[in-house]
């Protein structure tokens, strides 16, 4: 038999369209052809299991070979093969069943994305024409008494199909797809390039793939196995295989679901201390063990992109456009499922081994906070296992911490005031003052913490957060009782004026306060509200905030009426009083790391004078 015919598409040539628009990456032709070879082999294995194929399975390797001289790439399998009739059915017609529609669509809308087509029309085999000027199929079906089928197509819509016998007949069951590489695709004749492509896409295919005498793949990657069959070492060594030279992961989650969608995979929590180190796009997406992409945006929730590992699902519409993907119901369910799994894993780690969990907190804290900030459902679960750390290094859950500070840190309107520092070194004096008062201070120095604080204030009832240097210690948490002032009202006014003149700075608002004699003589603070506004402005957020223009610095200078220095300033005459006031103010600046330049030089000189005068 020899037959010539037209591939049944009722339109002019589709190949230029395939070639130009279909895949941005020409290299994936190999993925498509090797996947077909693997599918054909697996189908044969299934038939054997069902007893429908009774012959010897024999060597089932898929072999990829390249002949640079002859400009040929061959993909050979020993799968179920095709008869000439089947080639007509599967290659000539089926692949293009949707093509007419596509071409029509394509004519109307330029904007139709190339990605949309692939998923819809299953043009897998025809991707060969991205790199080949002619493609041959040599195939022999597993069925008894079938002839070799030989198909040739040069990239036009014309094909030739015959059934050679004698020396041209194929001896063994299976299919050879031979690509005659086009002149503009020389790169694919390089063995190193082909090996690279095979390693990228075919590394975990379920049937052995051989190229130049070497096996490319592991046929049973660990995510396809049952967790009960695996040891910790298996997980760790798989991680190291995926990400050579990485530190071992902290822990992992084995995903395995078959209803209402199909998904397997392993997600690893990487060991990282610093947000900058987080590497996104580290999760690899597979469909039935064929690598698709490592851009998993939209398939997994944003915050989970900090994780590493593998997700394998045939239910993810792999080749459709982004906007479609976001709206896809399966993708949304997958998102929800993964988020829930991750939260459950963290929760069980927390419950089963609190100490181990605490030890990992510095690595996972950022991730958990990021998740809480970006996903309400995750927040709801994580609020019971998110931890905060106080300056003494003790870790608490949020409910535990609220309980811990409740007795001591309620203000007169029954609000719990949580005190925190963003830099325990720089804010040392304030931290110490608060601690001496019996208050607890949290260390919230991470890059996400200012957002986290905002979120907690919204979520936790009757709770506000104040940075330790937002006010003098007596006023951080406003109570009914007040410390009596040893100064008369007249003296207070006099003291205030003295300091105002000595400081002579509009941005420094001087007030006299009755603090404890043990507190510093002068304390400079930036009110919480003001600092947050400024932070917001700096980070470019806050929407309408920009309307107010740049906010001026506005500090509160609290002069301690009960400190002996206040008395001395009042008692000293004229110049000397000013000098003492300025000195006390400069000390406060120094404590805040705000004393710089000329003022610092003047301070050093004045200190020397004062020492000499003693
Ligand atoms: N090596 C092969 N051995 C046996 N049959 C094959 C082989 N390659 C292709 N076929 C047949 O040709 C059909 C069309 O292949 P094609 O790659 O175009 O689409 P597909 O594999 O069905 O879908 P996809 O778009 O996901 O690749 C296959 O479904 C299969 O029946």
TrEMBL record:
Keywords for this entry? ATP-binding, Chaperone, Nucleotide-binding
| Family in the record | Belongs to the heat shock protein 90 family.
Protein name (Swiss-Prot/TrEMBL):
Molecular chaperone HtpG
Signal sequence coordinates: none
Q: Is Hydrolase among the key words of this record?
A: no
């Amino acid at each position: 038999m020899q037959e010539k015919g037209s591939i049944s598409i009722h339109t002019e040539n589709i190949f230029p369209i395939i070639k130009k628009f279909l895949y941005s990456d020409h290299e994936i032709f190999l993925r498509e052809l090797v996947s077909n070879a693997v599918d054909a082999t697996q189908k044969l294995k299934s038939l054997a299991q069902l007893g429908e194929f009774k012959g010897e399975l024999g060597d089932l390797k898929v072999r990829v070979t390249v002949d640079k001289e002859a400009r040929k790439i061959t993909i050979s399998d020993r799968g179920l093969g095709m008869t000439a009739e089947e080639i007509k059915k599967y290659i000539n017609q089926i692949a293009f069943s949707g093509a007419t529609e596509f071409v029509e669509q394509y004519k109307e809308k330029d904007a139709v994305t190339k990605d949309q087509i692939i998923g819809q029309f299953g043009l897998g085999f025809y991707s060969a024409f991205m790199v080949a000027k002619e493609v041959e199929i040599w195939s022999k079906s597993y069925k008894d008494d079938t002839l070799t089928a030989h198909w040739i197509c040069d990239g036009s819509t014309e094909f030739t199909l015959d059934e050679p016998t004698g020396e041209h007949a194929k001896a063994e069951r299976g299919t050879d797809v031979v690509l005659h590489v086009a002149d503009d695709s020389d790169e694919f004749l390089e063995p190193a390039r082909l090996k690279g492509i095979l390693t990228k896409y075919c590394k975990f295919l379920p049937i052995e793939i051989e190229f130049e005498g070497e096996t490319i793949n592991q046929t049973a990657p660990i995510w396809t196995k049952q967790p009960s069959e695996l040891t910790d070492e298996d997980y760790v060594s798989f991680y190291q295989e995926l990400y050579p030279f990485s530190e071992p992961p902290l822990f992992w989650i084995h995903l395995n679901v078959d209803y209402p969608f199909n998904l397997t995979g392993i997600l690893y929590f990487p060991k990282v201390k610093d947000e900058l180190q987080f590497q996104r796009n580290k999760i690899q997406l597979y469909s039935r063990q064929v690598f698709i992409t490592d851009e998993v945006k939209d398939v997994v929730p944003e915050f989970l992109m900090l994780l590493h590992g593998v997700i394998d699902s045939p239910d993810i519409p792999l080749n459709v456009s982004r906007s479609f993907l976001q709206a896809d119901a399966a993708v949304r369910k997958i998102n929800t499922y993964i988020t829930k799994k991750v939260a459950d894993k963290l929760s069980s780690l927390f419950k089963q081994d609190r100490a181990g969990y605490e030890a990992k907190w510095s690595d996972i804290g950022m991730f958990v906070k990021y998740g809480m900030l970006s996903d309400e459902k995750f927040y709801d679960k994580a609020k019971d296992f998110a931890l905060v750390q106080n300056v003494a290094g003790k870790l608490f859950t949020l409910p535990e911490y609220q309980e811990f500070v409740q007795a001591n840190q309620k203000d007169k309107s029954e609000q719990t005031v949580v005190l925190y520092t963003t830099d325990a070194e720089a804010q040392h004096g304030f931290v110490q003052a608060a601690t001496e008062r019996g208050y607890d201070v949290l260390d919230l120095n991470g890059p996400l913490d200012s957002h986290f604080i905002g979120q907690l204030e919204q979520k936790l009832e009757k709770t506000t957060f104040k940075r330790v240097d937002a006010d003098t210690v007596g006023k951080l948490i406003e109570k009914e009782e007040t410390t009596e002032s040893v100064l008369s009202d007249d003296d207070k006014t006099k003291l205030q004026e003295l300091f105002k003149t000595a400081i002579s700075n509009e941005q420094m608002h001087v007030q006299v306060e009755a603090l404890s004699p043990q507190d510093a003589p002068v304390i400079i603070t930036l009110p919480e509200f003001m600092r947050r506004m400024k932070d917001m402005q700096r980070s470019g957020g806050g929407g309408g905030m920009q309307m107010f223009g740049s906010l001026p610095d506005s500090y509160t200078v609290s002069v301690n009426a009960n400190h002996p220095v206040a008395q001395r300033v009042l008692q000293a005459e004229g110049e000397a009083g000013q000098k003492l006031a300025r000195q006390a103010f400069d000390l406060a600046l120094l404590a805040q790391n705000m004393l710089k330049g000329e003022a610092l030089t003047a301070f050093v000189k004045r200190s020397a004078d004062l020492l000499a005068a003693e």
